[in-house]
Amino acid sequence: MVDSQYYLPNDIGISALDCRVAFRLLSPKEQMYAHYLSRASWYGGLIVLIQTSPESANIYVLLQKIFRLQAPQQLEAAATAAGLSAEEYQAFLVYAAGLYANMGNYKSFGDTKFIPNLPKFKALVWESLAFKQSPGDMETLWGCCCEPLYSLEDKQKQLGLGEKGISAYFSGNCCLEDAEFAQKFLDSKVYYNCAVEGKSEVCCGKHEFEDSVFSVKRGDYAFLMEKVCQNLEKAKDYAANENQKRMLEEYIRSFTCGSVEAHKEGSRYWIKDKGPIVESYIGFIESYRDPFGSRGEFEGFVAVVNKAMSARFAQLVSSAEVLLPELPWPPAFEKDIFLKPDFTSLDVLTFAGSGIPAGINIPNYDDIRQTEGFKNVSLGNVLAVAYATQKDKLTFLEENDKDLYIKWKGPSFEVQVGLHELLGHGSGKLFVQDDKGKYNFDQTAVRNPETGELISSWYKGSETWDSKFSTIASSYEECRAECVGLYLCLNKQVLSIFGHEGEDAEEVVYVNWLNMVRAGLLGLEFYTPESKSWRQAHMQARFVILRVLLEAGEGLVGLRECTGADGRPDAVITLDRSKIYTVGKSAIQRFLCKLQVHKSTADVEGGRALYEGYSAVTTDGTHNFLRLRETVLLRKEARKMFVQANTYIKGDAVELVEYEGSAAGLIQSFVERFPDDAEEVEAQLTQPTLPTRACGSTDKNVLAV
Fold it and tell me: Residue 266: which of 247, 279, 281 has the closest Cα?
């Protein structure tokens, strides 16, 4: 019997993202700008299919061909003819919706594979109108993906490196040692000096490095990047100001020539574009799904500012310089100048990629964030539907906590997201010695608060946070930002900014901390015992925080196993609210300082030992976390999926088309997303040529991108 974690349940939550009012308030020029940015994002988002797994693009094209000729309601007759029950047909629709929502057959949140929960997939394909019209093409497509569609061999159960999983960022024979060696080459002057200027024609070719030869090629995703650039070019005509035009020009240069420097330059103009009505960002942004933690997955979003909520975030930004000194590290470990960013609440029109977050702090270029600034966004219409919880589905809490949790989860999470993005990701200094030997700190005066000694390590030359901390970088940084949120939500000024005073403020604090420890328990779903690895950065971070607060003792957090009313294993987690400001605050204060010191000083060895120690899922000690993991899996609730609108140009106006919040609605939105060139795009997606990638071999001849 297949473990249920590899299926998407038929009753999975699917919600439509409502942006109708926000879009209609835009001027015709702003609607045109949003439309072309959306088109660019949707084309670019298809890249994620290629980045996720070898079979994802073929499955996508197979589904598109089926649904383009028969909408979900029309296909149901074919399903009946193929012998599918109503439940099996719903499972087929849910699988298809999941493939679209995750842009591949691995969950964007957790990196676990999901397979169809029906045995008659092939029979339905053969009964479809698409097969009857083009049997040869459809049979070929089916042959390309039928085996991996259902395969749950150990290596194919999750994304990972080498024997730990599947990765489209590396060849199958590439191990961690190969990835580290490739990164060493990419960080070296041999490669870096030509790459930093964006001269990709110089970078391409063969490079000798440490008795090995690296061959560098370019052109991945060229057919999609061309369409991205065509739409960005059209968006320029409707840009609101010079910063937006220059931003788009640099993005186009980056996507045309493969220049990281051009994307960084575009990001600089994006930061300068303060308070736009239509906000967007696009490119290879987050590195969560690269098992080595360095390569970015494509995403693009377009959203409209929610002015009322943005006013609260603006207040938080204005208070940042007062709040930052409250953080538990010495002043020398904080940025020299806090560059006040934009912080806005947005209603998402388009978010193309593998998933939709609740908030974002970008750009991810540390050198820009440290000296030039960044932006924060909170995605309001995502928050409105993503975290709504029904009491009967609320797990691992005592009954008297459930009503409080449901009432205050939304407001408390809003506070946590604001603090996490602005003062979490936006805080802390990296000590750097540049290529010319210049330090951005006084190496004769800055001392490690943990030891009292002068700091002895820092970032050198082209080293970055991601390249140094590699496999733990993403989760470690999410943990640091989450801890900042927990620590500063205790500040009454912060709570007042969000409109919470008196008893209500205390409820927000309690539910925020309760939600964090519960999330730490839920995080066990995303741990793989066989490879002893975590598959989701945020959930690993929350488990680490749970471990820290359990270790604090004194009854702050309770976690006990029990038997549920249904007779199956269960667990209950509790939080003593009277000890949050004492025991809890002290524990987070100590841990947060350690996290920052290791990060600031590029102390990989110390940081890894600390973080991996708390990340360990053990069976000894007070809690058997492996057994608790089984309970979590038994009672887990599938993550929601979102249905997004499409925009079309009709005459001189832009029309917004929305869809129902269901599997059928999600499917239809994708079928109608590429009305003019769907077959051309699909033909390119199914080309046998694979993108170049880092490859390992026994003689260390490496092909790196």
Answer: 247
